[in-house]
C-alpha cells in the first residue's frame, strides 16, 4: 500500500505540488492513501482526485484575501525581501469583539468549498483514502480525520481546521472541543501513514534537510511571535521525521523523503503568486533530479543498495 504524505508549510505547499506532479504524472506513481497537515491537507484531496492542473491554478493564484476574512498582517518590502508587520486596526477590532485570535480565516473555507466539489469528494471516497491532521486543543492531542468517516461538508470543515494557524487564523469549535492547525501536534504524519498500513511512503517535507540557518528575527512583538512559532514547529517537524524513520525501519517500510533544497521563505503566511509559481517548478525539478539520481545509482555496480 502506497502513501503520499505532505507536511505543513503555508505558501510553501506550492513546492509540494510540484514534487507530487512529477511523481504522479512522470513516474506514474499511484497512491492508496494521501495524508496532509495544514497546507498539505489542502493539496491532498485534489491530488487524490487526479486534479493536478486544477490545484496548480488554485494554489498558485491564491491571495491573502482568499485566506483571511480579517487579515492580521500588513505586507512590507525592503528591497527584494518581503516581511510582515501587524495590522493594528484589524487586531484592535478583534480585541473589541473579544476574539482570541488576531485574524479570521473564514474566507479560506469559502475558497476551499468553491474549488473542491462534491463530485470530487464522492469520487475520492469511493476509491482512495484521504486523511488530514488536526490539533484538539481541548484534549491536548492530535487527531486524524479520514474522508471515509465524514460527509462533504464535515470533511471540508476538517480540511479548513487543519490549516488554521492560530492565533493568526480562526479558532474552530466542533462538538464542544476547540481545534486548530494540525501542525501544532504533527507536521509530517509519516508514522500515521505506516500505522494505517502503508508499505511505501513518499513524504514531502517543506523545509530544507539542514535546518541550521540564521533567521531574521522580528523587530516587533508580533513578528517575533511568528519567529517563535516557526522555531517550535521546526522542533515538532524534526521529531516527526525521526519517529517516521524509526517506524519505517521497524515495519520495513520504504520511506522516500523529499526536502526543499533551501529555505524558501521567512514567512509562509505570505502568499505571492510569483514566488509560489517558482516554488512549484522547483519542486518538480527537484523530484525529477532525485529520481534520475536514484536510477543512476541503481545502474552503478559500486553503489550498494
TrEMBL record:
Concerning Pfam families, the annotation shows: Patatin
The record's keywords, sorted A to Z, are: Hydrolase, Lipid degradation, Lipid metabolism
Claim: Lipid metabolism is one of the keywords in the record: yes
For the motif DGA/G, what are the positions? 181-183
Task: Give a yes or no for keyword Ribosomal protein in this entry.
Answer: no
Residue ranges constituting the PNPLA domain according to the UniProt record: 4-194
**GXSXG: where is this motif?**
36-40
In Swiss-Prot or TrEMBL terms, this protein is called Patatin family protein
| Species the sequence originates in | Algibacter miyuki
Taxonomic lineage of this organism?
Answer: Bacteria, Pseudomonadati, Bacteroidota, Flavobacteriia, Flavobacteriales
Amino acid at each position: 500500500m502506497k502513501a503520499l504524505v505532505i507536511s505543513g508549510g503555508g505558501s510553501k505547499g506550492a513546492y509540494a505540488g510540484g514534487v507530487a506532479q512529477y511523481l504522479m504524472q512522470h513516474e506514474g506513481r499511484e497512491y492508496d492513501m494521501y495524508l496532509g497537515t495544514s497546507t498539505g491537507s489542502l493539496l491532498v484531496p485534489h491530488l487524490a482526485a487526479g486534479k493536478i492542473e486544477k490545484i496548480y491554478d488554485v494554489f498558485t493564484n491564491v491571495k491573502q484575501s482568499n485566506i483571511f476574512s480579517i487579515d492580521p498582517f500588513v505586507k512590507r518590502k525592503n528591497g527584494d525581501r518581503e516581511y510582515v508587520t501587524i495590522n493594528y486596526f484589524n487586531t484592535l477590532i478583534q480585541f473589541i469583539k473579544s476574539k482570541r485570535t488576531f485574524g479570521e480565516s473564514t474566507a479560506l473555507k469559502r475558497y476551499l468549498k468553491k474549488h473542491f466539489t462534491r463530485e470530487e469528494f464522492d469520487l475520492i471516497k469511493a476509491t482512495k483514502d484521504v486523511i488530514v491532521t488536526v490539533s484538539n486543543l481541548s484534549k491536548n492531542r492530535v487527531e486524524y480525520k479520514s474522508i471515509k468517516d465524514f460527509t462533504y461538508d464535515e470533511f471540508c470543515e476538517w480540511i479548513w481546521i487543519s490549516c488554521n494557524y492560530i492565533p493568526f487564523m480562526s479558532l474552530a469549535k466542533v462538538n464542544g472541543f476547540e481545534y486548530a492547525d494540525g501542525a501544532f501536534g504533527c507536521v509530517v504524519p509519516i508514522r500515521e501513514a505506516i500505522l494505517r498500513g502503508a508499505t511505501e511512503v513518499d513524504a514531502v517535507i517543506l523545509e530544507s534537510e539542514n535546518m541550521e540557518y540564521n533567521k531574521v528575527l522580528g523587530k516587533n512583538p508580533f513578528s517575533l511571535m511568528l519567529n517563535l512559532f516557526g522555531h517550535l514547529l521546526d522542533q515538532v517537524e524534526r521529531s516527526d521525521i525521526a519517529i517516521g524513520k524509526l517506524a519505517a525501519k521497524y515495519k520495513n517500510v520504504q520511506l522516500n523523503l523529499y526536502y526543499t533544497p533551501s529555505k524558501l521563505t521567512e514567512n509562509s503566511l505570505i502568499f505571492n503568486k510569483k514566488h509560489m509559481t517558482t516554488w512549484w517548478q522547483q519542486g518538480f525539478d527537484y523530484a525529477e533530479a532525485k529520481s534520475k539520481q536514484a536510477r543512476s545509482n541503481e545502474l552503478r555496480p559500486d553503489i550498494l543498495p
